[in-house]
Design brief:
The complex is a heterodimer of chains A (262) and B (322). Chain A has 262 residues and is mainly α. Helix content of chain A is 79%, strand content 0%. Chain A folds into 2 domains: 30 residues; 228 residues, MetI-like (MetI-like fold, Orthogonal Bundle). Classes of the chains: A mainly alpha (262), B alpha+beta (322). The interface between A and B is medium-sized, with 17 and 27 residues.
């Protein structure tokens, strides 16, 4: 009993010290001169533009990775798939690779002198220093989460329920929607939460490809860093608080969705 | 609806699961595919259902070649050993699944599901989830689910294998009654010869990827075509080149020229039946089954010397051992 109490103290204390404390301090500092400056910083054009950009990137990258993740996980759990190990390794690569390298690789491919750079410019399609590049960078760094959450649950699910559904006349699409996705929805939801969190918080890869043009290619995370360097601490703290709130919304939304059905 | 498989061969890499299997299952029958694990019986069932594609050979259901047809379009009902229940659906939704994916009217589905719930005796459990049912209830739900789409054939893959002995016996009888009611051509895979004999009107014995013999339970027992079948459908003794059932061994107090001397190792009284374990003086163990009256008349006891002769024996061409 006493041991368990001590353990609980240690866990809560650790969380307070490394996570809640510093976050609370950010909030405390932001509101040091009252709510007025925070409100002004939050509703300023540059901040709102950064918020909008972060949301747009997340809203494109997360569904894209959810769809890709489901397809890749289904492929990876097929019993006889040639090249499975290679596919698995490639999907895991972004976990180990520094995001800066991802950004650099994108520039090598899409930059002015890159493989597709000239072609893209000729067709009026700007990737680097623009939204497409930032979305690509975010998609790559948040790629593995849905796949990695789904593969173990799909393995546990096995193939019998799908075979049973097939003998009952269900088409492949019906099997996916009515049997597989409902059965793995918790894993999928968790994978989406992780992907969202990663997409919201991405800094390195996006920093390399964005060019950090305030009001145009500056996301919330980039703005935190940029304002901090410019000694505009209230704006930096405010943008940080907005990021934290987005994170809380994400987690809360998934909890709610997961509770609906038992 | 009859099922005919012709020259069906299936390999998994180096392993041959089915080797040129030919079988005709008459419409309306309840046939058991009986064999030890790894004999290919489940693979044959899955080939009939379309869940496996044979490397060679054809499958016909009701006179139509279905070899290249997807399981969706074969009109088969399949029941798995481990139920394959849709865990996120209620019993009602599980049973109605086949009708729902066929986009039948809601009222029609409701009516049909209610009917089936009565048929498989799950009244009052329609709103439960599979996790809230016992194993026997889950398997009855799976049967109702398979029957809902009115399949032309019903395929059962070791349906009672995961259940405890008492429930298994109960469900066997229930399945027999159900078959008399519904009359759909049914194929049951089992490794349990007693189950096959009790439930099926025809048995196909498989071993080593090949069909060994097809017949009624009685034919298989009385006229086995090879030593494997003889040994698999009942206990058997080996006396030289011949095979003898334990109840066809006669024990005599004295020799008569054709008998083999043996020593009584153990006598077990099982009510009406008495089992006698013997050791031949020429070497080799024997098992004899006597009625209680026969045993009393002989006054048999452990350590006695007796003389054994077969009343009825079988010799197989080639004299292959078991």
């Amino acid at each position: 009993m006493r041991g368990r109490l001590a353990l609980r103290f240690a866990a809560v204390g650790f969380l307070l010290a490394v996570l809640v404390g510093p976050l609370a301090l950010v909030g405390y500092r932001a509101f040091g001169d009252g709510a007025g400056p925070v409100w002004d910083a939050a509703t300023g054009d540059a901040t709102l533009s950064a918020l909008r950009l972060t949301l747009i990137i997340t809203l494109i990258a997360v569904p894209a990775n959810a769809v890709f993740g489901v397809i890749a996980a289904l492929l990876l759990t097929r019993p006889r798939l040639p090249g499975r190990t290679l596919l698995s390794v490639i999907i895991d690569l972004p976990l180990a690779l520094s995001p800066v390298v991802v950004g650099l690789a994108l520039i090598l491919v899409w930059g002015r002198t890159g493989w597709f750079g000239e072609w893209a410019i000729d067709h009026g399609f700007q990737v680097i220093f623009a939204l497409p590049g930032m979305v690509m960078a975010t998609v790559i760094v948040s790629l593995p989460f849905v796949v990695r959450e789904l593969v173990p649950v799909l393995k546990e699910l096995g193939t019998e329920q799908q075979q049973a559904a097939a003998t009952l006349g269900a088409s492949d699409v019906q099997i996916l929607w009515r049997i597989v996705l409902p059965a793995v929805r918790h894993g999928l939801a968790y994978g989406v939460v992780l992907t969202t969190a990663r997409a919201l918080g991405e800094y390195g890869a996006v920093a390399v490809v964005s060019g950090k043009i305030a009001g145009r290619t500056e996301t919330l995370t980039l703005r935190v860093e940029e304002r901090f360097q410019a000694f505009d601490l209230v704006s930096a703290y405010t943008a940080s608080i907005m990021l934290a709130l987005l994170a809380v919304f994400t987690v809360a939304a998934m909890r709610l969705l997961n509770r609906e059905r038992h | 609806m009859s099922i005919v498989a012709t020259g069906v061969t299936k390999r998994f890499g180096e392993y041959t699961a089915l080797d040129d299997v030919n079988i005709a299952i008459p419409g309306g029958s309840l046939t058991a595919l009986l064999g030890p694990s790894g004999s290919g019986k489940s693979t044959l069932l899955r080939v009939i259902a379309g869940l496996e594609t044979p490397d060679a050979g054809d499958v016909e259901i009701d006179g139509t070649d279905v070899t290249g047809v997807r399981p969706q379009d074969r009109g088969v009902g399949f029941v798995f050993q481990h139920y394959a229940a849709f865990k996120h659906m209620t019993v009602r939704d599980n049973i109605g699944f086949g009708l729902t994916v066929r986009r039948r009217a809601k009222a029609e589905i409701r009516e049909r599901v209610a009917e089936l719930i009565c048929l498989v005796q799950l009244e009052g459990l329609g709103d439960r989830y599979p996790s809230q049912l016992s194993g026997g209830q889950r398997q009855r739900m799976a049967l109702a689910r398979a029957l809902a789409v009115e399949p032309s054939v019903l395929l059962l893959d070791e349906p009672f294998g995961a259940l405890d002995a008492r429930v298994r016996t109960e469900l066997r009888r229930w399945l027999r009654r159900l078959h008399e009611q519904v009359h759909v051509t049914t194929v049951l895979v089992t490794h349990d010869q007693e189950e096959a004999m009790e439930v099926a009107d025809r048995i196909a014995v498989m071993d080593h990827a090949r069909l060994q013999q097809v017949g009624t339970p009685r034919e298989l027992y009385e006229e086995p075509s090879n030593p494997f079948v003889m040994g698999f459908v009942g206990a058997v003794n080996r006396l030289g080149d011949s095979f003898v059932r334990p109840h066809d061994l006669e024990l005599r107090p004295s020799a008569n020229g054709v008998t083999h001397p043996a020593r009584v190792e153990r006598v077990t009284h099982l009510g009406f039946e008495v089992r006698v374990e013997l050791e031949r003086e020429a070497g080799g163990a024997l098992l004899a089954q006597l009625t209680r009256d026969e045993a009393d008349e002989l006054g048999i006891a452990e350590g006695d010397r007796v003389h054994v002769a077969p009343r009825k024996e079988r010799v197989f061409a080639g004299g292959a051992g078991i």
